[in-house]
Design a protein that fits this description.
By secondary structure, this protein is of the alpha+beta class. It has one domain. Strands 1-7-8-15-5-3-6-17-18 form a 9-stranded mixed beta sheet. A hairpin with a 3-residue loop joins β7 and β8. The two termini are about 30 Å apart.
Length: about 325
């Protein structure tokens, strides 16, 4: 989630989570606005306007190529001690890992909100459609950072952080920033110990108000995406007379647009490690294929090379390294 490279290809809005319309206003004088953000001819899709979405995400993922370092450290750290962060904060980065069942739940909530009076027969006729729009890198089985993905429950990560950095008390959750890249909008949530409150007073507490970009509630991060597609292969169709929704393939030119996602940044001072049991690290480890777009300072391996390294690091583990699979294979 940290970027290196051309500083002209990024713009950060400190202590705010800006929805797309607000971000367009803020960024309209920048060259990044003219890349993808300016577009207003995107086919209808779930997220903005009346067709708002709400994902209740119970897991976090951390993609990396530094598997051996993580195994040797027993967990995760900021190898740069904050030197490459815009605010010079030493952070351990995770992102939301939306599961297929969370796609289905979001679809059910959406349909109930849009069609509150639909009949049981109409509900039975409704085909699953939301997964077709989940085509951005936020939902991808592929990685931009490295061949290895750790996926933990939100509660596991926050509990480990609480015990190791908060003396067992609840961590504080704040709005860190909105980051605009060439085609990507990243909303970062900051997690820190209450002992460091004075360091972070300029960042507002993460709100639980409805329709915020991101909230935290009952062990889940609640994400309201506004740009879940990146490449818009489908158009959202509302059949009001039948109380049905559908995804129809776009005819003609397929539009590219920005895509958004949420990152969770845990404040871990330089040199310190957010530790997990070695078996838990292995249990929650999977292999990712390389995405078409990667970030600087990433590295990737074949599955065979990745499996060999994993076997060397966990020689007594009874099963091979699992591969991440796409939503298309799960629906």
């Amino acid at each position: 989630m940290q970027r290196q490279g051309n500083i002209k290809e990024q713009k950060h809005y400190k202590a705010r989570h800006l929805k797309l319309n607000d971000l367009k206003q803020e960024a309209q004088d920048t060259h990044l606005y003219k890349k993808y953000l300016y577009k207003d001819d995107i086919p209808p899709y779930p997220g903005p306007g009346e067709v708002s979405l709400e994902f209740h995400v119970s897991r976090l993922k951390h993609d990396t190529y530094k598997l051996e370092e993580i195994k040797n450290d027993g967990g995760f750290k900021d190898p740069n001690s904050g030197s490459e962060d815009p605010d010079r904060l030493s952070l351990v980065w995770w992102s939301l890992a939306v599961a297929p069942e969370e796609i289905r739940s979001a679809e059910s909530r959406l349909l109930e909100e849009i069609f509150p009076n639909r009949t049981e027969e109409q509900a039975r006729r409704q085909q699953s459609f939301l997964w077709k729009f989940a085509s951005s890198p936020a939902f991808s089985e592929k990685s931009r950072y490295g061949s290895y993905r750790f996926t933990f429950r939100v509660e596991e990560v926050l509990e480990a952080y609480s015990k190791q950095f908060c003396s067992g008390t609840l961590p504080v959750v704040r709005v860190l920033r909105t980051s605009l890249y060439r085609q990507e909008v990243m909303y970062t949530v900051l997690v820190h110990s209450s002992a460091n409150d004075k360091l972070f007073t300029e960042y507002p507490i993460l709100s639980n108000a409805p329709n915020t970009i991101c909230a935290y509630r009952d062990g889940c991060f609640i994400w309201n995406p506004e740009a879940m597609c990146e490449k818009h292969w489908y158009e959202l169709i509302q059949r009001r007379e039948e109380n049905l929704m559908d995804a129809e393939e776009v005819t003609g030119n397929v539009q590219f647009y920005v895509w958004d996602h949420v990152a969770i940044a845990l404040h871990v001072e330089g040199g310190q490690v957010l530790k997990f049991d070695s078996d838990d690290l292995r249990k929650n480890l999977t292999f990712c294929e390389r995405d078409a777009v990667t970030v600087p300072k990433s590295d990737f391996y074949t599955y065979e090379d990745a499996q060999n390294l994993v076997t060397r690091l966990w020689p007594n583990w009874p099963s091979p390294l699992e591969k991440e699979v796409s939503f298309q294979q799960r629906f």
